[in-house]
Amino acid sequence: MKKALAEPSAPVDSPLDRRELAEVERAFAELRSGRPVRFVPLSGPSFLVFASDTLDSAALAAATAQGKGRSDVGARLIVTATRARHLGLAATKGEATALCARNLGLGDIAQLADPTRQRQRAVDQVPPVVEAPFCAGSILDLLKSARLLPAALVSPAESAEGEALVVTEAAVRRFRDQAARTLSRVAEANVPLLGAEQTRIVAFRPADGGREHLAIIVGEPKPDAPLLARLHSECFTGDLLRSLRCDCGDQLRGAIDLMSQEGGGVLLYLAQEGRGIGLVNKLRAYALQDHGADTLDANEQLGFDADERVYKPAAEMLRQLGIKQIRLLTNNPLKVEALMACGVDVVARVPHSFPANCHNAAYLHTKSERFGHFL
Questions:
Q1: Backbone φ and ψ of 60, nearest 5°
Q2: pLDDT in tens, 18-48
Q3: Mean pLDDT across the stretch 247-261?
Q4: Which active-site residues does the annotation give?
Q5: Which domains, from first to last, does the chain contain?
Q6: CA nearest to 248, candidates 282, 220, 280, 218
């Protein structure tokens, strides 16, 4: 389960206004397009941030030009502490590790940030560890929310002038929570499904304009009884393509079938592909699994936590639907705990497992042994 962010050194729990929401959302677009953003910490100097995922030669030259000739400050490659451990570096305090970017080329940075690249640099060739900016954890959270690899090239922003979009650390720290709080119902319709013809789908959109979450309401739920419910993170490969690498498609269709049999239920279809790391990074994780890593190790090799999902959007959807008590269809005890921490009354856990096949047996074993699922 993703750990909560550390408490900031200044209050950041006030609501984000629409300007700040747009600020963070635009920062995603800039980083994904290969352009830098100016990151303004809660205190101290600001930084130019370049996503390693989209770095090109011009951006690298711009980053290394900042602070050139100064011995105290220069361009740094920031990676998560988990990624640093997989590079063979000693465990470091905090959420991030910074490496000196001096004399690093594009290929070097790509290999240090992305374990799916052809070959890692030998440990004795990894650049020396240097001081990470105090705001490094928030910079990496910004990249995670943009569904990019959590690795960034940062350099001091020496002038207040320039065309780079400005994004503040305060806005980034509040963004995930605020996106959940600002969900609104934007559309709904009856959508007959195979085996569950009496089904209605309700779409919820966050105020930042991000991706919608869906509530799939099956049958006629009874308001006076705990409702059978499932939180289902989207899985393009399993849900749509019927991939055999996971059990997601079986869980999706099996949940709808069971709800139809019971006469009612709700499946919350959450836009959190790959346990929250996004489809591209999930494919990278698959590539690592093809070379021997399990699901948990693959996520950590990429620099992510084992599970990056958040459940506040699900809790808010249930609240807006007027659902007060649920029986949660899941094998994951941490999902029960996370929902209850968000104020949802989970009165029971309903088992939800399916037979393994030759392609997902190891995946299911990892779920049981390392994630603690009841299988």
A1: -65, -40
A2: 777 788 889 999 999 999 999 999 988 899 9
A3: 94
A4: 307, 309
A5: 18-176 (3.90.870.10), 182-272+309-370 (3.40.50.10990)
A6: 282
